């Protein structure tokens, strides 16, 4: 028995391409994305562009006002500081719940991050980074914690765009997350909590 795969639509393909460029920092925050220019650049019809942009607006990566072109969302340093203010207690709950326990899915995300080729885009690194932290949150087993954490996902992803300059050497990012997972996995609770707090206490690069 064979199960046919659905081909990726032009809308999804374009949304994926633009998402990668935004999360890699190739398209900077605040950049305007005119439909006609994208239509010409990618060789697709404007309705396709419009739908792809709508996908990214829904994800929070783009913002759009009525009768204006979409723009890449901007997250200020003040926004990011506030983001960490909210993330810290959520991830502290995670550390408390998981201390002394390995999370296979988080280890898997770290392995994939470490094995990315040297020329991998930053958006691929962001994807595994997000997968690692999400796996830890899911492992707690609290649907409400998951929902609260998911609400911060877009700003977290946009914040990670800034970190590409902080972690020019990806091995440093991998090492930090390996230390984090080891601290959580080995415990005890206070060690795990301190490791998570230290992990979230970092700069966001140049403003």
Description:
With about 210 residues, the chain is mainly alpha-helical. It has helices at about 10-25, 35-40, 45-60, 75-100, 105-115, 120-140, 145-150, 155-165, 170-185, 190-200, and strands at about 30-35, 60-65, 70. The chain has a 3-stranded antiparallel beta sheet. A hairpin with a 6-residue loop joins strand 2 (about 60-65) and strand 3 (about 70).
How much strand? under 5%
User: Are there runs of 5+ residues with pLDDT below 50, and where?
Assistant: none
**Rough outline:** elongated
Record the strand order, biggest sheet. Answer: 1-3-2
Query: Could you give the order of the helices and strands?
Result: HEHHEEHHHHHHH
SS element count, helices: 10
Total strands: the figure is 3
Give a nutshell description of this structure:
The chain is mainly alpha-helical and 207 residues long. The chain has 10 helices and 3 strands, in the order αβααββααααααα.
Give keywords.
single chain; three-stranded antiparallel beta sheet; mainly alpha; 207 residues; 10 helices; elongated
């Amino acid at each position: 028995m064979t199960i046919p795969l659905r081909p990726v639509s032009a809308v999804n393909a374009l949304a994926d391409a633009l998402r990668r460029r935004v999360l890699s920092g190739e398209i900077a925050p605040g950049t305007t994305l005119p439909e006609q220019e994208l239509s010409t650049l990618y060789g697709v019809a404007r309705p396709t562009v419009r739908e792809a942009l709508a996908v990214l607006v829904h994800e929070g990566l783009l913002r759009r006002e009525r009768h204006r072109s979409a723009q890449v969302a901007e997250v200020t340093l003040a926004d990011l500081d506030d983001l960490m203010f909210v993330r810290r207690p959520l991830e502290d709950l995670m550390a408390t719940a998981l201390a002394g326990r390995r999370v296979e899915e988080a280890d898997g995300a770290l392995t994939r991050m470490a094995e990315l080729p040297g020329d991998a885009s930053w958006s691929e690194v962001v994807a595994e980074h997000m997968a690692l932290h999400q796996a830890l949150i899911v492992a707690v087993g609290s649907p409400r914690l998951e929902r609260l954490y998911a609400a911060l996902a877009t700003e977290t992803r946009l914040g990670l765009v800034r970190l590409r300059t902080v972690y020019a050497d990806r091995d440093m990012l991998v090492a930090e997350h390996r230390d984090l997972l080891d601290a959580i996995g080995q415990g005890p609770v206070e060690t795990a909590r301190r490791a998570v707090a230290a992990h979230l206490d970092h700069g966001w690069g140049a403003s």
